[in-house]
Design goal:
The longest helix has 21 residues, at 123-143. This protein has two domains: 1-69, no CATH class; 71-147. It is mainly alpha-helical. The termini are far apart. The chain has ten helices and no strands.
């Protein structure tokens, strides 16, 4: 279950649709396949090429896996994008969690990897992916802008300092020495 060779043999024996359905129904199997694809290994990317996601959740997970593989194997990932895996989704920084540092780091790594692609057959995909990466970075950073967070972050009201009331000293009256005794 854990290797790309086993998954490819399952695809040959039972068909890609059976394996795609299993990704949805068997959480551990789906996690293993998506984690393998995310490594960018050529056999795992061959698995991605054979499969067609059967649900919206599987499509989203596959986009995340391919986006994770992009910095590692840009040529192979760009060869997969198109009708089955739209460029806007794979190159659109589809990660669920993303702070500004993660977005910037991923963007820089992916842009550098995509820039190394010299294969003519994927040059159009390379250019479209670069544009999608830039657009996604700008959109994500705008959404998670620190100025927005600081401006809209609820803040506890300032603590009220209670001042100790200082009573004025009581005047000491001298003892009455005039006595009528």
């Amino acid at each position: 279950m854990g290797s790309a060779e086993v998954v490819l043999s399952e695809i040959k024996l039972g068909g890609a649709s059976q394996v795609s359905k299993r990704i949805d129904s068997d959480e551990n199997f789906g996690r293993t396949v998506m984690s393998g694809i995310a490594t960018g290994d050529s056999l795992w990317l061959q698995v991605a090429d054979e499969l067609t996601p059967t649900s919206a959740a599987a499509e989203a997970t596959m986009s995340i896996a391919l986006a994770s593989a992009l910095p590692h194997s840009p040529d192979k990932v760009l060869a997969l994008v198109g009708d089955k895996y739209p460029i806007e989704e794979v190159c659109g920084i589809p990660f669920l969690k993303g702070d500004s540092a993660l977005v910037i780091t991923y963007h820089d790594e992916a842009i550098a990897a995509v820039a190394r692609v010299r294969t003519v057959s994927v040059s159009a995909a390379r250019d479209a992916c670069r544009a999608a990466l830039d657009d996604a970075r700008d959109r994500r950073l705008e959404r998670i802008s620190p100025s927005y967070v600081v401006k809209n972050k609820p803040v506890a009201p300032p603590r009220r300092v209670r001042r100790k009331v200082i009573k004025p000293p009581q005047p000491v009256t001298p003892q009455d020495t005039s006595s009528s005794r």
